[in-house]
Request: fold
Amino acid sequence: MQNVNLKHREITDIILRGFFTVYNELGYGFLEKVYENALAIELADLGLTVAQQVPVEVVYKRKQVGHYEADLVVNDLVIVELKAADELIKKHEAQLLNYLKATRFEVGLLLNFGPDPRFKRKAFDNARKGNLSWIPSQFGQAETKLGRGETRKNQIKD
Reply:
């Protein structure tokens, strides 16, 4: 990654270093959960704060319409979605972009522990998220824009 202005670059660089370390040690062929656990250990050893299987709600017109769990959230800033597939496909990238769109997180990494290690970095600024965007407020809450000028306040976990 040559652009020095990438948001959260310091963190994503460390995550990628951890990804390749785990891949070089374990190789290809394990289930995704094995890589998730190993990467969580590696990233913690590299000094990052890692949460696994972080619950996220998707809200539409003030109603919860979905729930998913992010594989990893690192330093409460970067979503990491893991795959153990033969190759990354557009569906995997769309999944990560939708996770970013539905949350306050602006940067995500898609890491594939396939026959060849591959990654994609995605960013989605909160200002561009439209009706699903999470905008942190000064009071430790997030506001989910719901359309027609309405907002929903949600506590941000520290």
